[in-house]
Structure formats: C-alpha cells, structure tokens
Design brief:
- This is Endonuclease/exonuclease/phosphatase.
- The protein is of the alpha+beta class.
- It has a single domain, classed as Deoxyribonuclease I, Chain A, CATH 3.60.10.10.
- 21% of the residues lie in helices and 29% in strands.
- The chain is built from six helices and eleven strands.
- The protein has a six-stranded mixed beta sheet. A five-stranded mixed beta sheet has the order 5-6-7-8-9, with no helix packed on it.
- Helix 3 packs across helix 4.
C-alpha cells in the first residue's frame, strides 16, 4: 500500500498539469522613472497563515496542507501594507494549490495592492498539495527578470534577480530565501556573489535565515561592501522579535534614507522596509 501511495504522489508531482512559475507580463507596467528614491519591502508571508504564538506552529500546522477561510482576509491585510511600496520581495508564497484554495498568492497580492507587475518563482513543486514560491512585485518595468535555483543538499530554494534603469549601469535587485543550514548558505551566497560581482548598484532582499553580522563576516558576502540594517532590526518571531533573519543589504552607492522593521504581525516574520536614494548623477542617465 505504501508503494502505491508513494507512486501516486510522485506521479502527481511530475504531472504536466501542475502550474509552474508565472508572471503578469510587462505590457501595462510603467517604465522605470528617474525618481530620486525607491521604496523597498521584503516579507516572508508564511503562505498567508496568521501566526502569533509558538503554539500556533502546532495548532495551525494543518493550514500548511489544507485551506482556511481566514487566509484571504489575512492576504488582504498584507496587500494593504505592500500597496505603499515600489518593489516587494515575497517569500513562502503558494502558487496555487489546495492549501491556498488554488489561488496564486503572488498574483492575488499584486492585484489587491494595485501593483502592475508580478513574478512568481516556483521553487518546490508538490503538485496539488503545495506550490512553494518566491514572488516579486514591482511598480516599474524591469530591464529583465531571471530566476535562479540555489544550490543545496535539499532542493527548493531560489532567487529572483531583477535589473532596472540603464543597461550599462543597472540597479540590480536580488530577492531570495536561503536555507536553514549554514553549509547550504555558504554555497548559496557564493552563487549570489558570482551573480552580483560585475554590478555597482546592488540590493539583496529576503529571508536569509541568519544575522547580518554572520552573513557579511563569515560567508562569501564578506567579499562585498554591502551595508546592512542595524543589528537591532529583529524580525522573528513577529510576536516577540529576537532574531534578525530578514534583510535588505545595499551597495554603498545607494543612500539609505530610511529603514525599519514594520510592526505588522500577520505572519511569523515581520516585514523589513527601506527607502533607498539612487546614486548621485544616476538620474541624468535616463
């Protein structure tokens, strides 16, 4: 019996009927304009589950598998928040499976927030049971968007790289969700380091499952000069923040006008926001 169930499960995962990563298209997305600053947000939304206590990891664990009537209401709360930002990095989204009511949460949040461009990266495909995804939401038209599978013993982690502005000197945003394992993080950040090596204006955003001091001192990111948020920018757990696991790291060419942990506890992580000014002289390139 076990073998039969296992075979059916594997066939479901391999099925061509299962939705893959998708995007909205760029037809109605405004060009990247020479604004003096860009409002950024990164948010691990925990597939729309409202977690406000450690006990909820047990009592609400079934919501990772089955739909719940309050999930849409929680997504609407998230949409109200992200509607104030220009570029949003989302982690732990569902791309449309049983647990989300077959709703692509990246698309839903983009449309509910009035953000014209969205890109869903499907990282772990469990068929109708779960569509583990990252998401990019953007008010501006990127030059290009590429998705990357991050290395690791257990597959299922990914990054989205979006470039904006001038082709010869772009603003590069990397949205990611790193593994829990330190060994895997080393390999994943080594890969990311290679992707950003030739660019001057870089932003790394996402749930990195580690503190900035460790990331910038003891991983391949030590070869960069990226600037972190203050060490006190704790984002996890949302009901009693003690760990700084979510980050926006920027090149020194980008002036940080404002950064904060947003007190908006609708997930087990709090969102991180940053207002970044474009480098001096960059506006004249458009």
């Amino acid at each position: 019996m076990y073998k039969r169930i296992r075979k059916q499960f594997n066939e479901l995962i391999r099925s061509e009927q299962v939705p893959r990563g998708r995007c909205s298209g760029l037809e109605h997305v405004p060009e990247f304009e020479p604004h003096r600053h860009i409002r950024l947000l990164t948010f691990n939304i925990q597939v729309g589950i409202n977690t406000s206590s450690y006990r909820h990891y047990l009592t609400r664990s079934w919501q990772h598998v089955l739909p719940h009537r309050n999930r849409i209401e929680n997504l609407d709360r998230i949409a109200r928040l992200i509607s104030s930002y220009d570029v949003v990095a989302l982690q732990e989204c569902d791309g449309g499976s049983l647990r989300s009511g077959y709703i692509n949460q990246v698309q839903y949040l983009a449309e509910a927030a009035g953000i014209p461009y969205w890109y869903q990266q499907l990282n772990r495909n469990l068929g109708q049971f779960a569509q583990h995804s990252n998401g990019l939401l953007s008010r501006f038209r990127p030059l290009d968007v590429t998705e990357h599978r991050l290395p690791g013993l257990i597959p299922g982690r990914g990054a989205i790289i979006a470039r904006y502005g001038a082709e010869d000197d772009p603003l590069v945003l990397v949205l990611m969700h790193l593994s829990l394992s330190k060994a895997a993080q080393q390999r994943q950040l080594g890969y990311i380091r290679e992707q950003i090596a030739d660019y001057e204006h870089v932003v790394l955003m996402g749930d990195m499952n580690n503190h900035a001091e460790e990331l910038l001192s003891n991983t391949p990111l030590k070869e960069t000069d990226l600037v972190p948020l203050p060490a006190t920018a704790h984002s996890f757990p949302s009901w009693r923040p003690e760990k700084a696991l979510d980050h926006i790291l920027v090149s020194p060419s980008l002036e940080i006008r404002r950064s904060e942990v947003v007190s908006y506890p609708v997930s087990d992580h709090l969102p991180i926001a940053m207002d970044v000014a474009l480098p001096k002289g960059y506006l004249e390139k458009f």
